[in-house]
Amino acid sequence: MKENPILLEVFKNRFSSISEEMGVTLNRTAFSPNIKERRDSSCAIFDRDGAMIAQAAHIPVHLGSMPMSVKSAIENVAMEDRDMVILNDPFKGGTHLPDITVVAPVFAGEKAPSFYVANRAHHADVGGMSAGSMPLSTTLFQEGIIIPPLKLVEKGTIDRKLMSFLLNNVRTPKEREGDFAAQIMGNITGIRRTRELIEKYSLKTVTFYAKRLMEYAERVTRHMITEIPDGTYTFEDFMDDDGFGNAKVRIHLSVTIQGDRATLDFQKSSPQVEGSINGVYAITLSAVLYVFRALVNQDIPTNAGVLRPITVLTRRGTVVDAQFPAAVAGGNVETSQRIVDVILGALAQALPERIPAASQGTMNNVTIGGIDPRKGIPFAYYETIGGGMGATAESDGESGVHSHMTNTLNTPIEALEYSYPFLVTEYSIRRGTGGKGLHKGGDGIVREIHLQSDGEITVLSERRSLAPYGLHGGESGTVGKNVIVRDGKAMEKPGKFSSALKKDDIVRIKTPGGGGYGEKGDRSQETGGMEHRA
């Protein structure tokens, strides 16, 4: 079959639109504010081998790692028509336990599946030692229920025994059941739309263009890599700590560019640690995919082809390739951000005009749980909070946004106060926290919650001691702060902590600013090399 460039563009948009519509269905039918309001979920479509064809513009840390979950489902479960497989095991393709993936085959007249659709959603609680399932843990077993690849739906019918088992191991079963149903509906939408595409164009044509889209993404990515000067670029940065006294956990990288290929070597990174900031290999792969896809300035599909010119080297048993049964709850959300900082820091040496200074470098994970006095039932609140983005050679960084490996919205104040026994007493930009420079880093956020009940809180955050770096003379951003106010007395907390809360306590999260870019007062970059005079 000869490739038609017009049809290639048509299929690029059709595959992407299927993923987007899956996300719309999932988010609109979900129960939890974390998925319905914040859209902490992702959807994609895969070929018969589990290679990603297209994704929606959802969460980078989900999408880069989801192919490993899909392949794990294919390898471990014989799927038939109208089946769906559920899993969250970080060591079988997952990331951390709250991220639950649902995979469904798409049959099109053949004995084996022709395609797969899948979605991943962050559930606000999956059991474990603390509400919200993002604990200060030392082993995976403390973080929640571990789900290997299992059939949740068989021949169109939900396995009620498996569902009951899952719901009996979480604090908020009705909310979880609603979110599972939303994930199932998202996949049903994807199956329907993929079959409609096949009916219109034929299985042979759809399969042909799926393959060509991967080759197209690979070709464009290779061309982008050739624009990076050949050489080896080394950079390292550190996690603040693991929550158990292990400070300055190193992430080290050497990037070697040779022609149209890139090799990223993380093997000198620190061994996996006691606390939960360990990242599995899928996390590292996600961060690499995100950065290199962001460097491509063409509108290509984000699929398996992007990674074909890239080799990622890790050492098993390190914080970037943790081994079972390491604690990993924070690896997905915090370590992924630092891996991005390290990749960008290395590439800034080769592409100084294209790489931004460090953004806030954390997702500021806040989980609060307890008994809602209005309803007399447990609640589990989870949210990540935005901050400052790093400045670039062309502009200041944005303030108060999610950056890099997260792409969620916030929980609107009205939705938050309706769903939980909270009052939001401040939500503002944290002025002056972006690093100074030729271009200023974006400012962080102040999020303040007044509790209307007793409860427990866990915070996993970074950049509380080691600031987001500036580039080329730009200053670092301001570090974040976590504060609990009780009876009018403010108590500053570390970056990672768990604590009991009392009614009328105030939780105040101050997020970091982004790094600045260039030396302040140097206008030469903006004036074509000539000094600007008033």
Topology pattern, helix = H, strand = E = HHEEHHEEEEEHHHEEEHEHEEHEEEEEEE
The radius of gyration is: 23 Å
The largest sheet is: 7 strands, antiparallel
The number of helical elements comes to 10
Mean pLDDT: 94
- Ends distance: 63 Å
The secondary structure category is alpha+beta
**Quaternary arrangement of the chains shown?**
single chain
Level of helix content?
25-40%
> Given the C-alpha coordinates, what overall shape results?
globular
The total domain count is 2
The residue ranges in which pLDDT falls below 50 over 5 or more consecutive positions are 523-534
Strand content: 15-25%
* Strand element count: 20
Order of adjacent strands in the largest pleated sheet = 2-1-5-4-3-6-7
